[in-house]
UniProtKB/TrEMBL annotation, chain A:
<keyword id="KW-0012">Acyltransferase</keyword>
<feature type="domain" description="Phospholipid/glycerol acyltransferase">
    <location>
        <begin position="137"/>
        <end position="256"/>
    </location>
</feature>
<protein>
    <submittedName>
        <fullName>Acyltransferase family protein</fullName>
    </submittedName>
</protein>
<dbReference type="InterPro" id="IPR002123">
    <property type="entry name" value="Plipid/glycerol_acylTrfase"/>
</dbReference>
<feature type="region of interest" description="Disordered">
    <location>
        <begin position="1"/>
        <end position="73"/>
    </location>
</feature>
<keyword id="KW-0808">Transferase</keyword>
<dbReference type="Pfam" id="PF01553">
    <property type="entry name" value="Acyltransferase"/>
</dbReference>
<feature type="compositionally biased region" description="Basic residues">
    <location>
        <begin position="22"/>
        <end position="32"/>
    </location>
</feature>
<feature type="compositionally biased region" description="Basic and acidic residues">
    <location>
        <begin position="64"/>
        <end position="73"/>
    </location>
</feature>
UniProtKB/TrEMBL annotation, chain B:
<protein>
    <submittedName>
        <fullName>NAD-dependent epimerase/dehydratase family protein</fullName>
    </submittedName>
</protein>
<feature type="domain" description="NAD-dependent epimerase/dehydratase">
    <location>
        <begin position="5"/>
        <end position="236"/>
    </location>
</feature>
<dbReference type="Pfam" id="PF01370">
    <property type="entry name" value="Epimerase"/>
</dbReference>
<dbReference type="InterPro" id="IPR001509">
    <property type="entry name" value="Epimerase_deHydtase"/>
</dbReference>
<dbReference type="InterPro" id="IPR050177">
    <property type="entry name" value="Lipid_A_modif_metabolic_enz"/>
</dbReference>
<dbReference type="InterPro" id="IPR036291">
    <property type="entry name" value="NAD(P)-bd_dom_sf"/>
</dbReference>
Length: 350, 353
């Protein structure tokens, strides 16, 4: 972590964790900017970006690895973009039972989130190798930051860093699916309702599922309680993982707590609007929409050692004591890693 | 063997098709087709008996014909011709009660097949993404056809309890589409411009009418080896389509409206009697509904010929092109692609919607 202190503002990706891979797909916008900073970026993605073009040759607009090839790359990108446009406009694409639109997520939504991930929060990812390359896994993370940006950043982290192209399927609160526009985007990003049925179905299909068991208690806690894990619901995620025999991967996210320091909670207003809380931050309602801009904190996402669950007998999912113990174990591990990361952190913003 | 099959709701096209199909099965001797109004289509060699299932006469029909298999298809969302919602509800609920009462009295009845709908699950944002046969609905449908089906299924469960010797099969069909289907959703998709709820893109599942006929046939015969055809089954084609995909594949533009406006407009249209844009349909078009079909495949042993996208393609083909046919849109995009110098890069970001 010592070298993290001298990371240039833009280039922390090159040092993240053990498994290292260049960004998979980039939006046209981020690419154009990417050519400006100079040689550092140009050299780095060369070997695998070229390799990726061989197997993804279809239509996805890949980043042309070098400037000399930019002419052909641009044409190919335009062709790819038009092919994409054509498929979108004629409805010729597929979604899964949960409404996950892989193409839209990969080509558009991830490209929109990536600048936030790379440039704004400069997310450091550690321990990505703890996520298995195949089969189901349940990632359990802490939840903070008033708005669930941490979930989205975790999704980008898995999407962009995992060598086996895994997609994180997040479990979201029911409020997400009641809000117009939000619910549509959430479904298309592959999120689904946090309930045992959906989680088990996804894990049964061998997906990587992300859950934040603290829920609203975690995301809506006051700034003074930052990095103090709240109760982990009723531990339903443990019984779900036990029933499917998938490993539980604890995940600690540092940096999300400070994006909107919540110093107050307008409970009456929240009740009127039907939200679980209505945050008051030093900026939020006072500066209007400007106050809704998160603080540019520096994030670290660490995926911890998996906790295996396939060694337990099938009836273990019905054993409340075991469930509480496992829940505590997961919680302790996340809390512990949080403290460790906080000690290592030099500053909130760098 | 000599089976006598009694089919209700034959005045509808689906019922008529089923009657014509089941007669061709060798184990069927006689098909008795029942409805309150005479059908416009022919019924092959079936005996049509004009009887209203809301009246006790249905008991006499059942006793006289000594039917051993009853296929109850008269559970429908829309009125035939110019019936009102009240008539439909009465036919659905009171009709089912009368029919089940008659079945209970008839010792000949050995098998009962009921056409239900996945509407019983309702459609709410708190519901799991995929319903299985055992998922309890989070919010019971408050009215309309969905409530009818819930009540019908309740009576059928009661009947199954009282007559354990009768094999009861409840088939919960997803939205039925096809070249001749006259379901509310089919008429919705026939609108030149599709009103949608702003900010929601529901997931929809369809089942082709050919598959409906086939699965009803499977349910009304003896089960094949290794399968079981009594119980409750979700019936739907594979895959899911979003409403936005449907509209693009149909080539019909959408008009997103705010949810309150849709509800209001729906009630206005209903009052004027123009189309049956019912509240539960608005909820379907808001939250969508997807059901699991594992039971249908594994227990019932039926795999549909048409997937959801294929069903929709067949339906779209039968309806003719809309205002923005997909071919024309694709052609327009191709023409842009063929331009010698497309004005700068075309970031795909702009095509998000």
């Amino acid at each position: 972590m010592a070298d993290a202190k001298v990371i240039p503002f833009d280039d922390d990706r090159s040092r993240t964790g053990a498994v290292q891979r260049p960004p998979r797909r980039r939006s046209a916008g981020s690419r154009r900017k990417g050519t400006e900073p100079g040689p550092v970026r140009e050299v780095e993605p060369l070997p695998t970006a070229a390799g990726a073009q061989d197997d993804v040759a279809v239509t996805s607009e890949e980043q042309p690895p070098e400037r000399p090839r930019a002419e052909g790359g641009l044409e190919r990108r335009i062709a790819g973009g038009l092919g994409f446009l054509r498929r979108r406009l004629t409805g010729d694409y597929e979604i899964d039972d949960f409404g996950y639109d892989e193409e839209l997520t990969d080509q558009v939504l991830m490209s929109l989130l990536r600048p936030v991930y790379e440039k704004y929060f400069r997310v450091d990812v550690k321990g990505i190798e703890n996520i298995p390359s195949d089969g189901g896994a349940l990632i359990v993370a802490n939840h903070s930051g008033t708005l669930p940006l941490d979930g989205l950043m975790m999704q980008v982290a898995v999407h962009d860093n995992h060598p086996a192209d895994r997609h994180l399927r997040l479990l979201a609160a029911d409020l997400v699916f009641m809000l117009p526009v939000i619910n549509e985007l959430a479904r298309k990003l592959g999120h689904t309702l946090a309930c045992a049925e959906d989680a088990e179905r996804l894990l049964g299909q061998g997906e990587v599922v992300g859950v934040m068991p603290e829920g609203f208690k975690g995301i809506g806690k006051p700034f003074s309680e930052r990095y103090k894990l709240q109760r982990f619901g009723r531990g339903g995620f443990v019984s779900t993982a036990l029933r499917q025999g998938v490993p539980i991967i604890p995940c600690s996210i540092v940096g999300a707590e400070e994006i909107y320091p919540m110093i107050g909670n307008a409970k009456t207003l929240a009740r009127v609007l039907g939200f679980p809380y209505f945050p008051l931050t030093p900026t939020f309602p006072w500066l209007g929409p400007l106050g809704a801009i998160p603080l540019p904190t520096k994030w670290t996402i660490q995926f911890g050692e998996p906790i295996l669950t396939d060694g337990y007998p099938p009836e273990a999912a019905e054993d409340p004591m075991l469930m509480f113990n496992l829940t505590d174990q997961v919680r302790e591990q996340i809390q512990h890693t949080l403290y460790k990361l906080l000690v290592q952190r030099r500053s909130v913003f760098f | 063997m000599g089976k006598v099959v009694l089919v209700t709701g034959v005045a509808r096209r689906l019922g008529g098709r089923f009657v014509r199909r089941i007669q061709r099965d060798p184990q069927v001797d006689r098909v008795v087709a029942v409805d309150a109004v005479p059908p416009e289509h022919h019924l092959g060699g079936a005996d049509f008996i004009q009887a209203d299932i809301r009246q006790p006469t249905i008991a006499r029909v059942l006793a006289e014909t000594a039917a051993d298999t009853v296929v109850h298809m008269d559970v429908t969302g829309t009125a035939l011709g110019s019936g009102s919602r009240t008539t439909v509800k009465e036919t659905n609920v009171i009709g089912t009660m009368q029919l089940l009462g008659a079945c209970q009295k008839s010792p000949a009845v050995k098998r009962l097949v009921v056409k239900s709908s996945t509407n019983v699950y309702g459609s709410a944002p708190r519901d799991p993404a995929v319903f299985t046969e055992t998922t309890p609905p989070k919010s019971l449908p408050s009215g309309g056809f969905a409530k009818d089906t819930v009540e019908v299924e309740g009576y059928v469960r009661g009947f199954a309890r009282r007559r354990p010797d009768v094999a009861v099969c409840v088939l919960r069909f997803a939205n039925i589409l096809g070249p001749t289907a006259d379901t509310p959703l089919a008429s919705y998709f026939s609108l030149p411009v599709l009103p949608t709820v702003f900010g929601y893109d529901p997931r929809l599942q369809f089942v082709h009418e050919d598959d409906v006929i086939e699965v009803l046939r499977i349910a009304s015969h003896e089960p094949e080896r290794g399968t079981l055809n009594s119980g409750t089954f979700n019936i739907a084609g594979d895959g899911v389509l979003l409403l936005s995909q449907c509209s693009r594949r149909l080539g019909r533009p959408t008009v997103p409206l705010l949810l309150p406006a849709v509800t209001w407009a729906g009630s206005l249209v209903r009052t004027l009697g123009m189309t049956d844009f019912s509240p539960e349909q608005i909820r379907l078009l808001t939250n969508g509904r997807v059901v699991a079909t594992d039971q249908m495949r594994e227990t019932l042993g039926f795999s549909p010929k048409y997937t959801t996208p294929e069903t929709f393609a067949d339906f779209a083909h039968s309806r003719g092109p809309g205002l923005l046919p997909p071919e024309a849109v694709a052609g327009a995009v191709d023409r842009i692609a063929a331009l010698p110098f497309p004005g700068g890069g075309h970031p795909p970001t702009q095509s998000a919607n």
